[in-house]
Amino acid sequence: MDKIEEVSIAIRKRREELGLYQEDVVEKLRKENIHISVSGLSRIESSERQKLDSKLLIALSKILKKDFMAILGHNPQNFNGQSEVREESNVYGGSFQSFVTIPLYSMASAGNGLIEFSNEVDYIDIPKLNGNVKKSDFASKVKGDSMEPYYHEGDIIVVDVSNRDIRTLNGKEALIDYDGKRYLKIVEFEVGTGDLRLKSYNPAYSDIQIKNYDLDEVECKGVISMVISMRNNKRI
Question: Could you give a GO molecular-function term held by this entry (predicted)?
């Protein structure tokens, strides 16, 4: 096991010990001026990223109250690019013992970030991670490239339905129904006007703009609480 993988596992374990969801950590990182998506954090925790930015690790160390820089051999108190080799940390590598079964909806078609569910329903077992997956949640597959590089064709998203008030979800990734269509987008409200923008990560796709007086026509189905990357058949 290399040091990057050790750090990735340690981040996930420490987050679970503190009872934090991935979206909680992402929100705290934003306050530290570190911008990363839920899926981006998921890929770090699953060791899919081979390079970790030092500023990100220092911020995670502060938020999760654990010295992740030390695992890499760096001293965060005097970090200047020079490494100081330290003894490797012991990290937990156990398997999940408990799962939640939720519906997995097939996708009939997708375009411009659009998700339309077919009538086919399957079920999928998701590991219990400090209650961040509930029986009331559901899953669906990502299709298209509008949310790349964080969501890819075939990825499975878990949708938390506990908070569907779109006015409280600024900056969140959510499933949105609007104008007879369903979208996986980033929710962003304009300062001053209160107008809603449904944004994609892929700059090739333009924002969907909705005036504040039309918000009653928008329905949020839930926020993204987890992504399962299927590119390497890894659950994250």
Answer: DNA binding
Q: Is residue 165 part of a domain?
A: yes
- Output DSSP code: residue 114: B
Domain co-membership, 160 together with 203:
yes
Cβ partners under 8 Å of residue 26, min gap 6: 36, 37, 38, 41
Domain span at residue 29? 3-78
| Strands 99-109 and 116-127, bridge-based pairing | antiparallel
147 and 34 both lie in a single domain: no
Burial class (CB in 10 A: 0-12, 13-18, 19+), 18: middle
Whether the Cβ atoms of residue 129 and residue 25 lie closer than 8 Å to each other? no
Cα–Cα distance, 98 to 100 (Å, whole number) = 7
Cα angle, residue 9 at apex, residues 4 and 10 outer, rounded to 5°: 95
